[in-house]
Amino acid sequence: MATSQPTQGNSTSTVLGRRLGGELTRLRTTADLRQPHAAKALTASTTKIAKMEGGWVPMRDPDIRALCELYGVHDPAVVGGLLELARLDRERRKARGWWSEFPGIGAIQEYVALECAATTITTWQLAFVPGLLQAPEYVRALNPNESCAGAQPGMGCAFNVLSFAEPGAMDVVYMEIPRNELWHEGGEEAGVYGAMFENIERNALSAEESLAPITSLSTEL
Q1: pLDDT in tens, 26-48
Q2: Letter string b/e over residues 46-57, b meaning 16 or more CB atoms within 10 A of that residue's CB
């Protein structure tokens, strides 16, 4: 898990920037090279290399090509993938949506930009009745052996899964916890939440089946 949008002065470490920097760090260490070697190849400081690998700054195509050459990476698919990541990161950093008018939103700004770029968003939200207030009937209703519905996977947390149109773009899972935001990008963890949502969707009542209990509850209020 990664904390959303860490900041360093006026710089911002983005999800895509961290992913790109992580890939370049892996290629550098595989080549048994250190940051000073990369800095020399770019005629830059080691501080700049550290910022690039941490996703703090947008990366230029010539710098990526030069680093790939230094690291012995010549596969067009690998180099092209890194260049595409850099392009997407630069575009998202430059995005100026409605959220740009609200500088106080802080860490959630990156999520809002991702949400704007996403082609599909699946979201799961649910509130538990606090344990001390749970009636016996409520507890029994949570037990799948006692009910036609029962407890659903994911009842302990709310989460959003963002998917993108770009080929090869990984899903991003976003969750809010007190005083922080958490991210999963791609990999096994993101897959777990995607599968969890599919399971929730599969076990959920249909729109028609949901109407009856909602109508019944509304008449009791």
Answers
A1: 999 999 999 999 999 999 999 99
A2: eebbebbbbbbb
